[in-house]
Amino acid sequence: MATANDVRKGMAIKYGGEVCIVLDTQHRTPGNLRAFVQATIRSIKTGKSSNVRFASTEPIETVPLNRRKLEYSYKDGSGYSFMDAGTFESITLQEDLVGSCKDYLVEGSVCEIMFNDEIPVQVELPPSVSLKVVESPEGVRGDSSGNVQKHALLETGITVNVPLFIKEGEMIKIDTRTGQYMGRS
Q1: Residue 122: closest CA among 102, 100, 97, 139
Q2: Rg for the chain (alpha carbons), in Å?
Q3: pLDDT digit string (tens) for 137-156?
Q4: In the chain, where are the structural domains located?
Q5: For 66-124, CATH number?
Q6: Cα–Cα distances in Å, from 63 out to 54, 89, 177?
Q7: What is the mean pLDDT of residues 102-114?
Q8: For position 100, what pLDDT does the model report?
Q9: Counting Cβ atoms within 10 Å, is residue 113 exposed (0-12), middle (13-18) or buried (19+)?
Q10: What integer best gives the mean pLDDT of the chain?
Q11: Are 41 and 13 in contact (CB under 8 A)?
Q12: Which end of the chain, N or C, is more open, meaning fewer C-beta atoms within 10 Å of its C-beta?
């Protein structure tokens, strides 16, 4: 059994009799009080998120998760479809489970999906993805003093700030954790 200090983002724990995914953790040591761990967790069964506080030495029951690499296929009315490249088995995930990952999904991209007893519980993207710029205004000559950036619309529908030299049709690398431009790909 682990302690609250061992809890990390992405882990599955038992809390209140339910299996929950840890979305975020912060270890706090306020002034003259005892240290504690503040965590944001989401129940697998209900999908409800909550903030909880554990004493730093409190025992926490962890739940093992199975990780599988699946390839994103398409989105339709029933959800987001992923396929196992080895077995050609297909699963469909609802939009609330995919969450903000949908902004970085393009056909053929590989994601790691975590399962608890064959039930999908979370989608993890690679640290960076390459996306195509579909719309970007031209940079005006003379606007180049300092770190001047412009908006670019990507193939998934998100808008990011990019340097002035990026043009429509180029492939750029985006950090999936922050949503920021990393460079050309």
Answers
A1: 97
A2: 20
A3: 887 666 566 678 889 999 99
A4: 2-63, 66-124, 128-184
A5: 2.40.50.140
A6: 17, 25, 25
A7: 90
A8: 84
A9: buried
A10: 88
A11: yes
A12: N
Q: What are the structure tokens assigned to 62, written together?
A: 């962890």
Alpha helices in the chain (DSSP H): 95-98
The correct answer on CATH 3.40.50.720 for the domain covering 2-63 is no
* CA 125 to mean position of chain CA atoms: 6
Place of tokens 């003379």: 142
Looking at residues 94-103, what average pLDDT do you find? 86
Q: Which amino acid belongs to residue 75?
A: K
In whole angstroms, give the CA distance from residue 169 to residue 106: 15
Class assignment of domain 128-184?
mainly beta
pLDDT class of 160 with cuts at 50, 70, 90:
very high
Token readout for 46 is: 């209900």
Structure tokens at 54: 């554990």
- 102 SS3 class: helix
